[in-house]
Amino acid sequence: MSKTWNTTAAGRVSAVLAGVLVLISLGGCDRLPWFGSKQAAQGGMTPEVQVMAMQPQRVVFTTEIAGRTAPFRIAEVRPQVSGIIQSRNFEEGADVTEGATLYQIDPATYQAEYDSARAALARAEANVLPLRLKRNRFKDLISVSAVSKQEFEDADAALKQAVADVAVQKAAVKTAAIRLDYTRVNAPISGRAGLSTVTAGALVTANQAEALTTIQQLDPMYVDVTQSSTEMLRLRRAMASGQLKADAGQAVVRLTLEDGTPYAHEGRLQFTDVTVDRSTGMVTLRAIFPNPDKELLPNMYVRAELVEGVSETAMLAPQRAVLRDANGNASVYIVTADNKIVQRPVKVSRTSGDKWIVTSGIEPGERIVIEGLQRIRPGASVRVVEAPGASAPSPAPDAGTPAGGAVAG
Q1: CA nearest 65: which of 298, 232, 219, 314?
Q2: What average pLDDT does the segment 359-372 reach?
Q3: pLDDT tens column, 4-47
Q4: Percent of the chain's residues with pLDDT above 70
Q5: Chain centroid to CA 137: how far?
Q6: pTM (2 decimals)?
Q7: CATH number where 117 lies
């Protein structure tokens, strides 16, 4: 039986060897991985990656911040004398010009005061002439001792008192004229009038707490936004170190309205507050916009895009090429001159479209891997394919919000 088994096993081995020889003769041993050449084997195992050569680019840094519109000028109209409203002389919601009469207060009482003051002035002026003549006559007589010195001094004092009475009455006439003029409540500024809180026949009092109406100048219009003091310090340090530079020609602010449509007119940053809000840590920025069509109304919610500065040597890496470890540290895969993979730690600051702005870790001309990251590891050899258009820098993009989230608005 043992002899029979050995004969059967030997026959099977012979059959397997014969099959192998047939395969070798038909296909050639170079088609089998265990008989192939070393070069072919390496060619089949080397992963293929797409790379992009890093080149400095010009980037305009912008930040989008939420804000509110505010009128260029605002005036609350209040009466300066008491009385009954005779008429309202404007349409609510209409534009009014500076100096136009908005309300007429009953002037009868103030007209009487004015007339009385003018009469008192005329009487005071009438008293001056005889006293002046008497004083001049006594001056001539005292030289010949026809009157006493005391009589001359009394006449001189009476004249001066009469002249002072004239000055007092002139001031009273001016005061009465002002109060009479205040019965016409005029617009202090040009702008759009709001709702009226009184109607004809209402009693108003001087300097009352409630405004009769409010006038707001809507062209131009302010937009107030806030930026964190931390972000402002970062920008100032970047400019001081030369990483960024101010671009006066780009000091423009663009608006997006609350319905998502862009505002047609560009504005300019006009004012930066010098005080940090202690409760929020924010600094107020104010921009001014033309508003010829009155599209912007007070207290509208908008988003303002602010130009912060310009970097002439920004390095942009696609977001998919930047890896993060468990601690959040960023790195990229670099392909060396001999097509070896090196993992390089980098620092990124903010995004620009679909790219990270790399502040350190990459030199100009170095190639980073942008496709095939799952098939490589540090130290491995790769076959390099240049990504389409990767070597040519794109037009100067606008940098968006800082890394780690948008600036609070």
Answers
A1: 232
A2: 89
A3: 444 454 555 455 455 545 444 444 444 444 333 344 344 457 88
A4: 80
A5: 78
A6: 0.62
A7: 1.10.287
- List the Cα angle 228/229/235 in 5-degree steps: 95
| pLDDT tens-place string over residues 185-211 | 999 999 999 999 999 999 999 989 999
Rounded to the nearest 10°, the torsion over CA 220, 223, 224, 227 is: -130
- Beta pairing partners, 257: 302
Q: Are residues 151 and 127 in the same domain?
A: yes
User: H-helix or E-strand containing 297?
Assistant: none
Question: Taking a C-beta distance cutoff of 8 angstroms, is the pair 287, 267 a contact?
Answer: yes
pLDDT reported for residue 143 = 76
Tokens found for residue 105: 């207060």
79, burial (CB in 10 Å: exposed 0-12, middle 13-18, buried 19+) = buried
CATH code, domain with 88: 2.40.50.100
d(CA 379, CA 375): 12
Residue 314 included in any domain: yes
Q: Which helix (H) or strand (E) holds 53?
A: strand 48-53
Domain that includes residue 329, residue range:
52-69+219-399
260 and 338 share a domain?
yes
Question: Residue 207: what pLDDT?
Answer: 86
Instruction: Examine residue 328 and state whether it is found in any structural domain, yes or no.
Output: yes
The structure tokens listed for 208 are 């009352």
The pLDDT, as a whole number, for residue 25 is: 47
Q: Which CATH number fits the domain that encloses residue 279?
A: 2.40.30.170
What is the token pair recorded at 70? 């505010």
- Residue 408 belongs to some domain of the structure: no
How far is Cα 253 from Cα 260, in angstroms, rounded to an integer?
16
